Amino acid sequence: MTGSPRVSPRKELVRRRRRRSHSCWGHLIAAPLWPKYGVNLGTLLRTCDAVGACLAVPRRDWVPAALDRGNTLRRPSCVHWLNNPRNWLLAERAAGARIVAVELADESIRIGDLPAARGRTVALLGHESLGIPDEVLDLVDTAVEIPMIGSGVSLNVAVAGSLVLYKLAGML
Ligand SMILES: C[S@@+](CC[C@H](N)C(=O)[O-])C[C@H]1O[C@@H](n2cnc3c(N)ncnc32)[C@H](O)[C@@H]1O
Fold first, then answer.
1. Which of 2, 49, 99, 169 is 20 to 30 A from 22 in CA distance terms?
2. Distance 129 CA to ligand 1 centre (A)
3. Which pTM value belongs to this model?
4. What pLDDT shows up at residue 114?
């Protein structure tokens, strides 16, 4: 580092970013399939934009408004609307996508050991209170957790999802 760091001017940051929203590369998909709080969807949408991922959400009445509220992006990001999240997951799996459960589980690997995604990868995120249902965990290829040493039981889902998305994108 040469000299003290300075906040980059907004104009300069904008210049360095993509000129258009990315089209659906279909490489990395964040999938909060059982959302409870809209604010987490807005946060995840911003992370998806930052790492070039898509967001897959269930088609529920309140979700579009929640995404609009949380969307501070200059251009809309790639959102997949799912009528039946479980069927979508099964179809992704059948088509060869790797399903990565972001979850605290005995079998989870640590985020530090998670390799960057090579092919189409779905990062599955759990319900804010209930986590990922057991019957869905049976379908995943791997589970990953972010180690914690504090007194909290778990992280906020958007924080956990964002960390894993950065790792899968190979940007951390
Ligand atoms: C608030 S947590 C779920 C609540 C949790 N089952 C409990 O008993 O408090 C919501 C979701 O965030 C993700 N999550 C939170 N902390 C995590 C961690 N340390 N490692 C991996 N995923 C985490 C998981 O997807 C989880 O299903």
1. 99
2. 8
3. 0.92
4. 98
